[in-house]
Structures are given as C-alpha cells and as structure tokens.
C-alpha cells in the first residue's frame, strides 16, 4: 500500500520537445540517415541528364553510407547490384561479375591459407621463438614484438596478428612488473580508473600500441597483407587492363619491403624515445628500462614455458608451412618479368594470380593433418579410431573468414567499372584540369595526406574504394603514369594510427588494454608523419626501379 501511494512527479510531466528529439536521434539516427542520404544526393542526377551523373549519384550515396556506417558496410556494398542496372548505367551480368574477379579470388584464397597458419598455431610458435632469439630485456623484448608482428602481418590478417600478440604482451608485462622493472598501470591520481579498469602506463602502451602499428605497417609489405592492397590493385588493373606495369606479387614486395623495414625501425626508435625513456636515462621510465636487463632470465623463463606448451613442431605445422611456401613460390614465379615464369610457359590461356592460391587451398582441405592412417598399412598399432582431420577444417574457415570483405571489395570494383563505362571518369578528369600546374610529387604527397586523413575516420577499404578511382583520372589529367599516384596513395590508405575506429588492430588493443583515445591519438602523430614521408620517398626512389615509366604512355591517353 505504502509503495502504491508514492507517485513519481515526472510521470505527470510531458517531456519537452527538445528531449524527445534528442532521444529519437540517439536511437534512430542510422535509420534516418539511411533515408536522408539517398534523397539528399538526388539533385546530382535530377538536375543534369546523363549516365555519368546517374553513376555519380550512386557513388556519392555509397560514399556517405560507407563513411557514416548508418547501414553496415557490407550491405551498402551490395547496392550497386540493383542500382546500376535500374539507373541504366551497367547491366546486371557485368555488375555481378565484379564481385568475384581474379583479384577477389586471390584475396579469399590468401585469407584461407593465412587461417591455416592460425589453425595449427604456427604463428604463435614463430612469435615466441623470435622473442627468445632476440632477447628478453625490455628494449629487446620491444624489438622482438615489433619485428615479429610486422613479419607475421605480411602474411596473415593484421587483426589476427594483433589479437595473437596481445596475450603474449600481457604475460611479458606482468613478469616485468612482478620483478619491479616497470609499472604497467598509471597512477590513479593521474588517470582515474573507469568502471574499475585502470589505464595502462606509457611503457605498457608502447608494447600494445606498437604491436597494432607494427601490424598495420607489416600489412603493407605483401599483396595479401591487407585488403586495401587488393583494392587498389583491382581498381587500377580494372581501369587500365592493357597496362604493362602490373601490380603483381614480386614487384609489390620489391616496392614495399624496404619501406616496411625502414618504417618498423623508425617505429621502434620513436616509441623508445617517447614511451621507454631512450636518451632520458635520469627519467623514471628510463631508469626502470635500463635496469630491466637484470630480469631478462626471469622473463625468458616465462616465454620459454609458453613455447614449451606448444610441444615439438607437429606434422600439421610442417605441412601448413610447406603449402604456405608453395603459395609464395607460385606467386613469385608465375610471371616475374626478370625470367620466364611458369605462367609464361603455360600461355595457351591467360593465367593470373588466383590459381596460385587456390591450389594450396585445395590441398589444405584434402591432405590429413597427421599421417597415422598409414599405420593400417604397416600393421602397427595403435590404429586411429576415428577419421583424421584435414590441415584446415571447413567449419573453422567459414566461421573465421570475413566474407563481408568480399562484398566490400566487389562493390568498389563495380562502382569503379561503372564510372568508366558511364563516362563519369572522363568527366571527373576534365573537372580536375587545375592540377596540371601542380608538381607531380606535390600531387602525390597531397594524395597520401588525403588518404591518411580520411582513413583515420573510417574503414580502410571503403576509403580506398572512394579515392583510387579519382586518382586514376587525376593521373590522366596531369599526364603521369597512374601507378605513380595509385600505389603510394593505396598504401597510405592503411595508415590509420590515431583512432580505434580507423583500423581493427587499433580497436583490438584499445579494448584489450583499455587505452584511452587521447593516448592513441598522441602516439600516432610521429608514425603518421614518418609513414607519409617514407611512402613518398619510396615512390620516388624504389618505385623508379620497379616501374621506370613515370610519364603517361600514349596507349593510356
């Protein structure tokens, strides 16, 4: 009775309109924007007639939907399938063909092969072994983290590499704290805990953020390292299919590996200075890190114990390593240019990169992980009592492969092809005539800066889908070979170092280690600067060795 007589005075009050509007927007902004954006872009095609403007309308709509993410990225990427035919820009068959091109098959195959490395824990073995070889003092540990994260992320996804390194880093840091080397949490007087979670110290952030940034840098080292590499390759080769300067596996690595090594070294140096007290021996963190060499045996014991848990290298791991090497060899020797490749010999039909990855993929699902089945032939027990699993299970693969990325890349390829078919590309080129007076390096630098700025606020692949087709047309306007702009800008689309939303590795370490956004934004300043500078320098040095042509060839005009 007593409870029933108590009346909340707010129940009789009518909410203010401002409150209702805020609540409605907070709960339903995504639905509102998904309707407003297509309507707001309608004047693009209603005011001016032509297929190029109808294509521009669709591209503008997709761009805003990708950036705001009011509709899931992958769902937005399916929009061209119905919109391009309805708008009369490109027929259905040609549109759908863009969603499973050779480049996309190579991307999916590369992901599956990378998953086989995760499936057998070969990547973890490699990481722990490298740390043991490099050494276990604080600075050597940090060097090991940067080195192995950079290397592994060249071959498997950046997010998987970062997720693998996080528990390893946590165990290392806890051992360093247990031996009074470094504090892994900030004093709560400087940074209060939120929801009971303390903020990591600057030294701990160096390890976690360094791993995320190393994964991003390493992903730029090979064609299969990250999705943006496949995007700018696919868009460039789709726009200029007859170009002699292809973005293939060996030339990509020759172009990027020296740059990746320099960037990883600069990352190690910068974080040592800013977070680990290098050149500041009297600072608290400098004294702690310099004194940490004495606890190297204790840390080594922890890492050795983790390595021992893996046991000896199994036949499963050996076979996965073999098929991974087969894939690399097939990609390198298909048509390297410096000698006659197997793809050049089997030249009755065009052989691109997808067969190089699909042969190992087929082997992974066919060959048994362990050869105990042969005990039946030797008549020696114990005999296996059940079927033997293959090197990679389909159940693990289909649950782990990010299938949505196939739609995302395919949507970008469809829009790029539609822009060329409709004449929108030519129209954009004419609108960018003012760039003719700009120096080539200036345009290249500006494109890289724009790519880095945009990719920090949205996912890498959509930004690459938006930017690369524009740069293809800019190159035609300023009479420079498109690859001179597309390659560095495509690489720069991966350089998201400031916000967790920019790229999955940032989000992983931010959530795992409870790193505040302000600290990640600060930590990303120097890596952003030296990555932009190095990619531009590399584009005017190593690029000239790999792709000597800088002027626009006559057959591209």
UniProtKB/TrEMBL annotation:
<feature type="transmembrane region" description="Helical">
    <location>
        <begin position="252"/>
        <end position="274"/>
    </location>
</feature>
<keyword id="KW-1133">Transmembrane helix</keyword>
<feature type="transmembrane region" description="Helical">
    <location>
        <begin position="205"/>
        <end position="232"/>
    </location>
</feature>
<feature type="transmembrane region" description="Helical">
    <location>
        <begin position="55"/>
        <end position="83"/>
    </location>
</feature>
<feature type="transmembrane region" description="Helical">
    <location>
        <begin position="29"/>
        <end position="48"/>
    </location>
</feature>
<feature type="transmembrane region" description="Helical">
    <location>
        <begin position="474"/>
        <end position="498"/>
    </location>
</feature>
<feature type="transmembrane region" description="Helical">
    <location>
        <begin position="401"/>
        <end position="419"/>
    </location>
</feature>
<protein>
    <submittedName>
        <fullName>Protein I'm not dead yet-like</fullName>
    </submittedName>
</protein>
<dbReference type="GO" id="GO:0005886">
    <property type="term" value="C:plasma membrane"/>
</dbReference>
<dbReference type="GO" id="GO:0015141">
    <property type="term" value="F:succinate transmembrane transporter activity"/>
</dbReference>
<dbReference type="Pfam" id="PF00939">
    <property type="entry name" value="Na_sulph_symp"/>
</dbReference>
<dbReference type="InterPro" id="IPR031312">
    <property type="entry name" value="Na/sul_symport_CS"/>
</dbReference>
<dbReference type="GO" id="GO:0015137">
    <property type="term" value="F:citrate transmembrane transporter activity"/>
</dbReference>
<feature type="transmembrane region" description="Helical">
    <location>
        <begin position="103"/>
        <end position="120"/>
    </location>
</feature>
<feature type="transmembrane region" description="Helical">
    <location>
        <begin position="431"/>
        <end position="454"/>
    </location>
</feature>
<feature type="transmembrane region" description="Helical">
    <location>
        <begin position="357"/>
        <end position="377"/>
    </location>
</feature>
<feature type="transmembrane region" description="Helical">
    <location>
        <begin position="519"/>
        <end position="537"/>
    </location>
</feature>
<feature type="transmembrane region" description="Helical">
    <location>
        <begin position="141"/>
        <end position="157"/>
    </location>
</feature>
<feature type="transmembrane region" description="Helical">
    <location>
        <begin position="320"/>
        <end position="345"/>
    </location>
</feature>
<keyword id="KW-0812">Transmembrane</keyword>
<keyword id="KW-0813">Transport</keyword>
<comment type="similarity">
    <text>Belongs to the SLC13A/DASS transporter (TC 2.A.47) family. NADC subfamily.</text>
</comment>
<keyword id="KW-0472">Membrane</keyword>
<dbReference type="InterPro" id="IPR001898">
    <property type="entry name" value="SLC13A/DASS"/>
</dbReference>
């Amino acid at each position: 009775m007593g409870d029933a007589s108590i009346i909340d005075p707010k129940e009789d009050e009518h909410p203010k309109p401002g409150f209702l509007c805020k609540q409605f927007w907070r709960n339903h902004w995504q639905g509102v924007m998904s309707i407003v954006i297509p309507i707001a872009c309608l004047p693009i095609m209603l005011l001016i007639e032509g297929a190029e403007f109808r294509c521009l309308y669709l591209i503008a709509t997709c761009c805003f939907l990708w950036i705001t993410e009011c509709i899931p990225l992958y769902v937005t990427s399916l929009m061209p399938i119905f919109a391009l035919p309805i708008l009369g820009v490109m027929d259905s068959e040609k549109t759908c063909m863009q969603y499973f091109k050779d480049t996309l098959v190579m991307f999916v195959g590369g992901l599956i092969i990378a998953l086989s490395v995760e499936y057998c824990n070969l990547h973890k073995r490699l990481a722990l072994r490298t740390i043991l070889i490099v050494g276990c003092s604080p600075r050597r540990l940090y060097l090991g983290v940067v080195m192995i994260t950079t290397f592994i992320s060249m071959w498997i996804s950046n997010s998987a590499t970062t997720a693998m390194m996080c528990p390893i880093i946590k165990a290392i840091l806890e051992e360093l704290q247990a031996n009074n080397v470094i504090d892994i949490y900030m004093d709560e007087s400087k940074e209060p805990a939120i929801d009971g979670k303390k903020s990591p110290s600057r030294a701990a952030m160096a390890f976690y953020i360094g791993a995320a940034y190393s994964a991003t840098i390493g992903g730029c080292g090979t064609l299969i390292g990250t999705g943006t590499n496949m995007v700018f390759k696919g868009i460039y080769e789709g726009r200029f299919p007859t170009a002699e300067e292809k973005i293939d596996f060996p030339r990509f690595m020759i172009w990027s590996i020296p740059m990746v090594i320099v960037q990883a070294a600069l990352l190690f140096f910068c974080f040592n200075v800013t977070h680990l007290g290098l050149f500041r021996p009297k600072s608290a963190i400098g004294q702690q890190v310099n004194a940490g060499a004495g606890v190297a045996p204790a840390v080594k014991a922890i890492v050795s114990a983790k390595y021992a848990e893996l046991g000896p290298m199994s036949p499963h791991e050996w076979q996965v390593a073999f098929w991974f090497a087969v894939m690399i060899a097939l990609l390198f020797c298909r048509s390297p240019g410096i000698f006659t490749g197997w793809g050049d010999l089997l030249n009755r039909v065009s052989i691109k990169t997808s067969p190089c990855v699909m042969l190992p993929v087929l082997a992974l699902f066919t060959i048994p992980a362990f050869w105990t089945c042969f005990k039946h032939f030797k008549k020696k027990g114990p005999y296996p009592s059940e079927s033997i699993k293959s090197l990679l299970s389909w159940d693990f693969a289909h649950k782990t492969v990010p299938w949505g990325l196939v739609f995302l890349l395919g949507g970008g390829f469809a829009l790029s092809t539609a822009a060329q078919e409709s004449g929108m590309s030519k129209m954009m080129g004419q609108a960018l005539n003012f760039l003719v007076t700009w120096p080539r390096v200036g345009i290249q630098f500006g494109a890289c800066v724009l790519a880095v700025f945009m990719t920090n606020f949205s996912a890498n692949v959509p930004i690459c889908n938006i930017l690369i087709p524009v740069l293809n047309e800019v190159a035609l306007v300023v009479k420079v070979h498109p690859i001179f702009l597309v390659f560095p800008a495509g690489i720069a689309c991966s350089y998201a170092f400031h916000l967790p939303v920019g790229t999955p590795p940032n989000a992983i370490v931010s959530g795992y280690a409870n790193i505040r956004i302000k600290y990640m934004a600060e930590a990303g300043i120097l890596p952003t600067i030296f990555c932009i500078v190095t990619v531009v320098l590399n584009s005017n040095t190593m690029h000239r060795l790999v792709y000597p042509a800088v002027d626009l060839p006559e057959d591209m005009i």
